[in-house]
Amino acid sequence: MANIFANVGLNMDQLDLNRIYRFGFGAEFFDNINETFNGITYTDIFAAGWSYGGEEYGSLFGGRSIGYSSVTGHITGGTVTGYIEAVLSDGYYAATWGTERASVSAVSLYKAGLTRSTTDDMAIMRSLLGGNDRFDLSNMADLVRGHGGDDTILGRGGHDRLFGGAGHDRIDGGTGADLICGGAGRDLLLGGADRARDVFLFRSVADSRPDKDHDTIRNFIPGIDDIDLRPIDARPAACDQAFTFSGSTARAWSVWCVDTGPDILVRADVTGDGRADFEILVANVDRLTASDFLL
């Protein structure tokens, strides 16, 4: 289980370890230093300084049994369990984002930093985030992907784009106009109570199956927030057809609502039999209309 934190806007899609190598101006290895950050002790630390976009950054890779050749400057072994990235501001380095309680091959990270392609960077992130991870994000605009596992993603402030991936995730957008996508699994999706427009995105019927496997949306504000079903093909055999909204009546290739008392069940059919192939529970709302959906 890894913990990701961000103090400024984090965009995981723009991760590029090669910047550390390409724009680096110095590096140092600290063996058996046993330094503690945020209550976590790192036996070894590799530190690198680099410049990008007119700013000066520092990157710290902490872990155990990290091997370093003073002759070649190469990382030769060990495991990285934490990473902190910081920017120089008013003479001090302030942490921008990082990951803790991780487990990544130090050599794999080093090799990924040598290549201009970010394909290997993204592969490392998918592997790193394959467990039950926690994201504590910034009050700015963040974009993160939980990948596998049962993740907790806390968007806090800003206009965030939060993707859970596989697993039973809990995604809380916090304040701001957020895009929230649970992905596969039984997810709990929470919008904000600040009346900013949140969009709950579903890209496949597999994202929210009927009955016990459905997702739950909380803090949905009708007339402000939207449920986006546009990526789902209502009639796969007819080539990318949009759903129609049929109110409270179940119909073929349609979206309809079932009032269960305190909640609304949103159901959709993609096989033409008028039965639910897809279902979302929207908690504590009295009524949904066609204007609450993007179809």
TrEMBL record:
GO terms for cellular component: extracellular space. Pfam families: HemolysinCabind (PF00353). PROSITE patterns: HEMOLYSIN_CALCIUM. Keywords: Plasmid. GO terms for molecular function: calcium ion binding. InterPro entries: Hemolysin-typ_Ca-bd_CS, Hemolysn_Ca-bd, Serralysin-like_metalloprot_C. It comes from the Bacteria. This is Uncharacterized protein. It comes from Cereibacter sphaeroides (strain ATCC 17025 / ATH 2.4.3) (Rhodobacter sphaeroides).
